[in-house]
Amino acid sequence: MSASTSPSLATDHWRRDTPGCEGVIHLNNAGAALMPKPVIDALTTYVLREAQIGGYEAADEAAMRVRETYELVGRLVGAPDRNIALVENATVAFAQALSAFDFRPGDLIVTTRADYPSNQLMYLSLARRLGVEIVRAEDLPEGGTDPDSVRRLARDPHTRLVALSWVPTNSGLVQDARAVGEVCAQLGVPYLVDACQTVGQMAVDVNDLRCDYLASTARKFLRGPRGIGFLYVSDRMLERGAFPLYVDMRGADWTDPDSFRLADGARRFENWEFAYALVLGLAEAARYALSVGSAGGQRAWTLAAELRQSLERLPGVRVLDRGRERCAIVTIDVREHDAADLKLRLRARGVNTSSSDREDGVLDMDQKSARTVLRFSPHYYNTEDELTTAVSMLEELITRSP
After folding, report:
1. Which element (helix H / strand E) includes 208?
2. Predicted TM-score of the model (pTM)
3. Which of 134, 215, 307, 380 has its CA 20 to 30 A from that of 5?
């Protein structure tokens, strides 16, 4: 159901579809959202079927539904099914894409100051092991990477890749992924986008982004299960013969003792072993997101904007989100309070949030002079009353006398 007729009716419908809403105020959708019934049913039904007839046999029986997963995920990001690879999570997807490049000493990776910490660690590992140089574009005054800075850096003839996290993990910032994609297209530089926090709360079109790779997960705003994600690979990369460093028998055929033939399409980036229950859960999450449409993301952003206004009125609270666009992630610094402790105390009261510390975003956190941050991430099935309750509980925790 979309919200085209009545937002309140749509919200009621989404909440009825979400059993978890009955017992918790879930504001940790940037971590792992509450799954809707169709996703839960797909998971449990398939696991029971595996128990009844065997794992390989259940996978064979579900082959048509597994194939449909590629189509549904492709529709989410504007791509044909042949350009979609299913992998364990967004970090694996990102790593598979990075491993398709034959980096040499002196090669450049242009990235941003707000990229996801696991991605930053991969860049640094490539620098330490292969001599790759990592350069980070400057930010705009209002936050978010400056496309003109990307252009200046990526013009270097040694640039092999531009990589960007569209939405960082510890901020409501939305980076201008489309503008960076335009720069990369003009310069002919491959472009890798981490859309882990994007899919499910924003419209995604890989053609509009002009990206060569896009990595994402099921568990966050897409509302799928944990342990499954996907990678989009452009035709340009496939036609160049791109494949991951550690290709396995899912991605290639061993044709002769010393040669192999790559699989057609993006599936060369997959591994042979799948958690098929999670694959089918991803399919239902994609189907559900397509049925919700743009109304879901619009509502999530509206709730986040309201939440920012309420939180910034609390004593000792500093809202840290920056950028021209701010999404359904709200991060705050609470003076003289550790965010991880506040998270646990809120959880004990039935409110789910998340926390980050400096190691989750060294550059961003140091710039904001923050040691720990508390993260709220509402979704379309949350209500205004839930936000009011969550803010009141936080206020009680931070103003209560020791």
Report:
1. helix 206-209
2. 0.95
3. 307
Domains of the chain: 7-17+293-399 (3.90.1150.10), 40-290 (3.40.640.10)
* Residue 64 identity (one-letter amino acid): M
Is the distance from CB of 154 to CB of 162 less than 8 angstroms?
Answer: yes
Per-residue pLDDT tens for 55-68? 999 999 999 999 99
Structure tokens belonging to residue 238:
């496939």
Contact 112, 165 (CB under 8 A): yes
Give the C-alpha separation, 304 to 202, whole Å.
Answer: 14
Render 360-383 in DSSP notation, one character per residue: G-HHHHHHTT-SEEEEEB--TT--
- Which residue, among 50, 47, 86, 66, has the nearest Cα to 250 in the 3D structure? 86
Contacts of 234 (CB under 8 A, 6+ apart): 83, 206, 211, 212, 213
In 3D space, the residue among 121, 92, 122, 112 whose CA is nearest the CA of residue 168 turns out to be 112
User: In sequence order, what E strands does 142-207 have?
Assistant: 159-165, 191-194
